[in-house]
Amino acid sequence: MALDEIEISRAIIDRYYEKLTDNLETDVAIVGGGPSGLVAGYFLARAGKKVALYERKLSIGGGMWGGGMLFNEIVIQKEALPVLDTFGVRRRHYKDDYYTADAVEAVATITGMAVRAGLTIFNCVTVDDVMMRPERIDGLVINWSPVEMAGLHVDPLTVRAGFVVDTTGHDTEVVKVVENKVAGRLNTPTGKIEGEKSMWADRAETDTPANTGEIFPGLYVAGMAANATAGGPRMGPIFGGMLLSGEKVAEELLTRL
Question: What's the pTM?
């Protein structure tokens, strides 16, 4: 049978429309497709929850693809190996508590397993705002990333979520939106975003899971966004804390869903 270009277009449109409408209301909306967001999405979806992840870029994986300075190897400390092993990502012992893994294999494997577990990923989608009812996060306001990049005046759409997780890394994009609306009422020492500190891998790898949690009713932070919000240091190209943070936020949310 000859292929018809219109049927190809129709298949793409129909399937994407199904995916979009099916996720207008979810248990959890994750913003940011880095390692912590993907890991959180995997564990939540595996537990049977409806979870959608929104990534503003075309590619998924955050900074993990490039390892350190485009050397596409990542470092994982011993404490985080059980999470890595959950996904079957191969690792090699380097020395002491240091292990390495291929960055491309790690991103591809975690992403594939998360999607097969039931996580729905929307790439090229930017979170423009949040919905609040009245003092709690109730959902997200979304638009196409190219619309934002081009500066076009195009109204967004909204999605409802029981909980939102900000895993946007250093930028803390969702937390910044909320901070502007709630005037000093974030769950931090000052009630505001504390800002990330300079590189300190040992401290950051401990702080990242510790700072993971609910920062405002209905809004959680995980990964580097947790450290940046709480004032922890950055960790560089070591990803154990990211993996553990994603697992932790999923565990906390599962107790509430």
Answer: 0.97
